[in-house]
Design brief:
Blueprint lengths: L3 E4 L13 E4 L5 E8 L12 H18 L7 E8 L2 H6 L1 H12 L5 E6 L10 E8 L1
Parallel strand pairs: 4-5
Antiparallel strand pairs: 1-2, 3-6, 4-6
Protein backbone atom coordinates (compact mmCIF):
# COMPACT_ATOMS: atom_id res chain seq x y z
CA UNK A 1 0.00 0.00 0.00
CA UNK A 2 1.24 3.48 -0.88
CA UNK A 3 1.56 5.88 2.01
CA UNK A 4 1.09 9.62 1.53
CA UNK A 5 1.18 12.64 3.74
CA UNK A 6 -1.32 15.26 2.55
CA UNK A 7 0.15 18.74 2.22
CA UNK A 8 -2.51 21.45 2.52
CA UNK A 9 -1.05 24.73 3.84
CA UNK A 10 -3.57 26.77 5.82
CA UNK A 11 -2.57 29.81 3.76
CA UNK A 12 -4.19 28.19 0.69
CA UNK A 13 -7.56 27.56 2.35
CA UNK A 14 -9.29 24.21 2.62
CA UNK A 15 -9.24 22.28 -0.67
CA UNK A 16 -12.52 20.69 -1.75
CA UNK A 17 -12.30 17.61 -3.98
CA UNK A 18 -8.51 17.63 -4.29
CA UNK A 19 -5.31 17.81 -2.26
CA UNK A 20 -2.72 20.55 -2.80
CA UNK A 21 0.18 18.14 -2.45
CA UNK A 22 0.94 14.52 -1.62
CA UNK A 23 4.29 13.49 -0.16
CA UNK A 24 5.28 9.84 -0.43
CA UNK A 25 6.57 8.34 2.78
CA UNK A 26 8.05 5.08 1.48
CA UNK A 27 10.13 3.68 -1.37
CA UNK A 28 8.19 3.69 -4.60
CA UNK A 29 8.08 3.52 -8.37
CA UNK A 30 6.36 6.20 -10.47
CA UNK A 31 3.82 5.40 -13.15
CA UNK A 32 3.15 8.12 -15.73
CA UNK A 33 -0.34 7.65 -17.16
CA UNK A 34 -1.06 8.91 -20.67
CA UNK A 35 -4.24 10.88 -21.28
CA UNK A 36 -7.25 8.60 -21.21
CA UNK A 37 -10.61 9.44 -22.76
CA UNK A 38 -14.03 7.87 -22.37
CA UNK A 39 -13.72 5.07 -24.86
CA UNK A 40 -14.09 1.32 -24.67
CA UNK A 41 -11.76 -1.55 -25.65
CA UNK A 42 -12.65 -1.06 -29.33
CA UNK A 43 -11.67 2.59 -29.00
CA UNK A 44 -15.20 3.86 -29.46
CA UNK A 45 -16.54 6.68 -27.28
CA UNK A 46 -19.06 5.46 -24.72
CA UNK A 47 -21.45 8.18 -25.90
CA UNK A 48 -21.79 11.93 -25.89
CA UNK A 49 -22.80 12.32 -22.23
CA UNK A 50 -20.19 14.30 -20.27
CA UNK A 51 -20.55 12.30 -17.03
CA UNK A 52 -20.42 8.95 -18.84
CA UNK A 53 -17.24 10.02 -20.62
CA UNK A 54 -15.71 11.24 -17.33
CA UNK A 55 -16.58 7.96 -15.60
CA UNK A 56 -15.09 5.88 -18.41
CA UNK A 57 -11.93 8.02 -18.69
CA UNK A 58 -11.34 7.60 -14.95
CA UNK A 59 -11.98 3.85 -15.28
CA UNK A 60 -9.38 3.73 -18.05
CA UNK A 61 -6.84 5.57 -15.88
CA UNK A 62 -7.46 3.04 -13.12
CA UNK A 63 -7.02 0.15 -15.58
CA UNK A 64 -3.49 1.39 -16.31
CA UNK A 65 -2.79 1.76 -12.59
CA UNK A 66 -4.08 -1.71 -11.74
CA UNK A 67 -2.23 -3.31 -14.66
CA UNK A 68 1.00 -1.94 -13.15
CA UNK A 69 0.19 -3.47 -9.76
CA UNK A 70 -1.13 -0.27 -8.22
CA UNK A 71 -4.40 0.82 -6.67
CA UNK A 72 -6.57 3.95 -6.80
CA UNK A 73 -5.09 5.29 -3.56
CA UNK A 74 -1.67 5.35 -5.24
CA UNK A 75 -2.67 8.05 -7.69
CA UNK A 76 -0.71 11.15 -6.72
CA UNK A 77 -1.64 13.62 -9.46
CA UNK A 78 -4.30 14.00 -12.14
CA UNK A 79 -4.77 16.57 -14.86
CA UNK A 80 -8.32 16.67 -16.18
CA UNK A 81 -8.89 18.31 -19.54
CA UNK A 82 -12.47 19.27 -20.40
CA UNK A 83 -13.93 20.94 -23.46
CA UNK A 84 -16.57 22.78 -21.40
CA UNK A 85 -15.84 23.83 -17.82
CA UNK A 86 -19.42 25.04 -17.37
CA UNK A 87 -20.74 21.56 -18.09
CA UNK A 88 -18.25 20.22 -15.54
CA UNK A 89 -19.49 22.73 -12.95
CA UNK A 90 -23.14 22.03 -13.71
CA UNK A 91 -22.69 18.28 -13.33
CA UNK A 92 -20.20 18.32 -10.46
CA UNK A 93 -22.53 16.36 -8.16
CA UNK A 94 -22.92 13.50 -10.66
CA UNK A 95 -19.18 13.54 -11.35
CA UNK A 96 -18.53 13.37 -7.59
CA UNK A 97 -20.75 10.30 -7.28
CA UNK A 98 -18.86 8.55 -10.08
CA UNK A 99 -15.54 9.63 -8.51
CA UNK A 100 -16.40 8.18 -5.10
CA UNK A 101 -17.62 4.92 -6.67
CA UNK A 102 -14.17 4.38 -8.21
CA UNK A 103 -11.78 6.34 -5.96
CA UNK A 104 -13.49 6.37 -2.56
CA UNK A 105 -12.36 9.36 -0.54
CA UNK A 106 -8.91 9.56 -2.16
CA UNK A 107 -8.31 13.01 -3.66
CA UNK A 108 -4.88 13.47 -5.25
CA UNK A 109 -3.33 16.73 -6.35
CA UNK A 110 -5.46 17.75 -9.34
CA UNK A 111 -5.74 20.38 -12.02
CA UNK A 112 -8.74 20.98 -14.28
CA UNK A 113 -8.03 22.64 -17.63
CA UNK A 114 -10.57 23.78 -20.21
CA UNK A 115 -9.34 23.16 -23.75
CA UNK A 116 -10.70 24.09 -27.15
CA UNK A 117 -10.76 20.47 -28.22
CA UNK A 118 -9.26 17.02 -27.74
CA UNK A 119 -7.59 14.84 -30.38
CA UNK A 120 -10.53 12.44 -30.72
CA UNK A 121 -13.64 14.03 -32.23
CA UNK A 122 -16.50 13.96 -29.74
CA UNK A 123 -14.28 13.49 -26.68
CA UNK A 124 -15.24 15.87 -23.89
CA UNK A 125 -12.89 14.70 -21.12
CA UNK A 126 -9.30 13.46 -21.00
CA UNK A 127 -7.49 12.49 -17.79
CA UNK A 128 -3.75 11.98 -17.37
CA UNK A 129 -1.84 11.31 -14.19
CA UNK A 130 1.00 10.08 -12.09
CA UNK A 131 0.67 7.17 -9.67
CA UNK A 132 2.99 5.79 -7.04
CA UNK A 133 3.35 2.03 -7.16
Amino acid sequence: MVSFKRINPESLGRPVGYTNGLLTTREFRLLFIAGQIGWDESQQLVGQDFVEQFDCALKNVLAVVRESGGAPDGIARLVIYVTDKEEYRARRREIGERWRAQMGDHYPAMTLVEVKGLLEDGAKVEIEGIAVI
